Amino acid sequence: MPIHQLVQVGRTSGGVVLPKSEVRALGCVGEDGNVKSHPMRITQTDDATSEVSLIDPNDFPDAEAEV
Fold first, then answer.
1. Taking 60 as the threshold, does the pLDDT of residue 49 lie above it?
2. How far is CA 3 from the centre of its chain?
3. Chain mean pLDDT for the chain
4. Which residues form the DUF8053 domain (predicted)?
5. Claim: this prediction has a pTM higher than 0.85
6. H/E element, 53
């Protein structure tokens, strides 16, 4: 099982870096070889476990609907 590093993203966020091969297998790399922006849902399942899921961009709720 590969280990992924948690990294600082900007001043107020953290992120996990995934190998491009894994991102490509998810269909999130464009023909130009760059990672495509895609909505994802992160669900905390317990204190030390989170699940990351790709969601259909058409099902992504309107930002205004969540306010």
1. yes
2. 16
3. 85
4. 3-56
5. no
6. strand 49-54
Supply the range of the domain harboring residue 42: 6-66
Residue 45 tokens read as 């399942």
- The whole-angstrom separation of Cα 53 and Cα 26 is 10
Quick one: which of 24, 25, 51, 45 has its CA closest to 35?
Answer: 24
Task: Please check whether residue 1 lies inside any domain of the structure.
Answer: no
Q: How far is CA 26 from CA 18, 19, 35, 40, 42, in A?
A: 11, 11, 11, 12, 16
Please check whether residue 34 is in contact with residue 16, taking contact to mean a CB–CB distance below 8 angstroms.
no
Mean pLDDT of the 1-25 span? 89
Q: Per-residue b/e over 42-64, b at no fewer than 16 CB within 10 Å?
A: eeeeeeeeeeeeeeeeeeeeeee
